[in-house]
Amino acid sequence: MKTEDLVIRLSQEDPRPKRWEPAMALAIAALATGVIVVFFSALWLAPRADLMTALAANDHTVLWKFVFAFGVVVTALPLVRDLTTPGRAAGIASLIALLPFAIVVVLGMRELVVLSETELRQLLSHASWLACLWQVPLLSIPAFAILVVIARRLAPTNLQRTGANIGVMASGFGAVGYALHCGDDSMLFVATAYTLAIGEMAFLGALLGPRLLRWT
């Protein structure tokens, strides 16, 4: 093959991964991760005995916990995809990823308005706060490890931001696993303790991203 022909052929080939490839890889990883985290949670933290009854309750508070946790995963996935695909800008995906947090904060504020001082004091003194802040990140570790391996095989450039959002996505899975066990159904609790736990993983991801996602 002549040099000119080789140059023309290489110029016609797109070296960047197809748009669907990162999304497909991350989606498959997410499905596998979800199964692993739920299994890990069931082994380590016994699911609450009244889970099915609570899910069917008229106030839907338990259901909202799972909607929030899954929402964090689903909205973080497009953002992680954009951050691991060359040529894609994380624009509207960044705003969409904030949606689950905005919704749960609104629900938490609405609950705060109607809580009595005694109820609020009981809520703030509940031991679930401390448990949530370390159990959600611990449940997130398998998800974080899997997603880092997948992201590293793609092409992230902003390693710190990618790591932070992988941490958010992983902690969404951790929140799902923790919600199976968590007996505190307050939206105020979810809006604060769950969000803080997710923030811990985002910080950890931002800290480790430049080291773990670096191309070798």
| Low-confidence parts | 13-17
Structural class: mainly alpha
Beginning-to-end CA distance, first to last residue: 32 Å
The figure for the number of domains is: 1
Number of helices: 10
What does this structure look like?
The chain is an all-alpha fold and 216 residues long. The chain is 76% helix and 0% strand. The chain contains ten helices and no strands. It has helices spanning 3-12, 20-44, 51-55, 61-83, 92-96, 99-114, 117-124, 128-153, 159-179, 187-212. The protein is globular.
Quick take:
With 216 residues, the chain is an all-alpha fold. It has helices at 3-12, 20-44, 51-55, 61-83, 92-96, 99-114, 117-124, 128-153, 159-179, 187-212.
Please write out the topology.
Elements: H1 3-12, H2 20-44, H3 51-55, H4 61-83, H5 92-96, H6 99-114, H7 117-124, H8 128-153, H9 159-179, H10 187-212
Helix pairs in contact: 2-4, 2-8, 2-9, 4-6, 4-9, 6-10, 8-9, 8-10, 9-10
Supply the key terms.
216 residues, mainly alpha, globular, 76% helix, 10 helices
